[in-house]
Amino acid sequence: MARARRVLGSARSAVARDARLPDRAGACWDGGITDYHLHLDYASIARAAGTPPLALRPHLHRSVVPGWLDEGLKYRHGATPALDNVVLLVPDDAWTRTLPGGKVPDRGDFKRHAGREQERVRLWTRAVQESQRLADEFAEIVAHGGPIEAAPLG
Fold first, then answer.
1. Of these four, 6, 40, 83, 136, which has the most CB atoms within 10 Å of its CB?
2. Which domain holds residue 97?
C-alpha cells in the first residue's frame, strides 16, 4: 500500500492548465489522473509491501474507469479481476445530490463560475464541509461496528 500511496501521490502532483480561463483563476488541479486509475494491481502491491491484501479505496462515483482515455468507452467501465481485493467506498447518490449543483465539484466549475471565483470557492467549501460530515459519520459507524451497506462492483 505504501507504493500505491506513492504512485497516487505522484500522480496528484500533475497540473492541468486551461488556457481559456483567465489568468487570475490560477492552476487547475486535475484529479482525473488518479481518479480514473483504479485498476492497479493492488494484490501485488500489497504483497511487495508486506501488508494485508485488502485495499480500501475511496472514490467519487460507482463506476470504475480503468484509464482516462476509457472515459467515453462505457463498455470498459466496471470491475475486473484486478479489483477482486478492493473495497470501494462510494457516497450514496442521494447524498451527492445534496451537494451544491447536485454533484461533486469538478474542473468544469472553473468555467461555470468564471468571473465569480468567490462563489465557486464558497460552493466548493460547502462540498468539503459536507464531505467531512460524511467521513465523520462513516468513522462513527466503523467505531461502533455498525452495518455498512455493500454491493459487488459492477
1. 83
2. 2-143
Structural domains in the chain (count): 1
Which pTM value belongs to this model?
0.64
* 19: region left, alpha or beta (phi > 0 left; psi from -120 to 50 alpha): alpha
Environment class of 116 (CB within 10 Å of its CB; exposed 0-12, middle 13-18, buried 19+): exposed
Q: Which helix (H) or strand (E) holds 58?
A: strand 55-58
Q: Is residue 46 part of a domain?
A: yes
CB 92, CB 130: distance < 8 Å: no
Query: In 3D, which of 62, 57, 109 has the Cα closest to residue 84?
Result: 57
Tell me the sheet residues that pair with 16: 28
At 37, the pLDDT band (50, 70, 90 cuts) reads low
